UniProtKB/TrEMBL annotation:
Gene Ontology annotations of biological process type: DNA transposition
The keyword Coiled coil is annotated on this UniProt entry: yes
Coiled coil: 49-76
Database matches in Pfam families: HTH_Tnp_1
Keywords: Coiled coil
Lineage: Bacteria, Pseudomonadati, Pseudomonadota, Alphaproteobacteria, Rhodobacterales
Gene3D superfamilies: Winged helix-like DNA-binding domain superfamily/Winged helix DNA-binding domain (1.10.10.10)
Annotated protein name in UniProt: Transposase
Length: 88
């Protein structure tokens, strides 16, 4: 997955500038981002504080780790069932 040039703190700072009254077009030009990126950030981080964004990132990482573990366990179970089903 591509890493962002901006940290959660920077993204929330941009969104706070928008809440302070700057237009989306001005912010996009100032920070060198596209309109789509700005609106994606707003939908994901809108109304959050920095500590909430960090916690969200931690939960997303933990969720990805748990999904990988579950997939590995399901593969192990499928392999064992296949091995038990065969007659030697």
């Amino acid at each position: 997955m591509k890493r962002s040039r901006f940290t959660e703190e920077q993204i929330i700072g941009v969104l706070k500038e928008h809440q302070a009254g700057l237009s989306a077009a001005e912010l996009c030009r100032k920070h060198g981002i596209s309109d789509a990126t700005f609106y994606n950030w707003r939908s994901k981080y809108g109304g959050m504080e920095v500590n909430e964004a960090k916690r969200l990132k931690q939960l997303e990482d933990e969720n990805a780790k748990l999904k990988r573990l579950l997939a590995e366990q399901m593969m192990d179970v499928a392999t064992l069932r296949e091995m038990l089903g065969k007659n030697f």
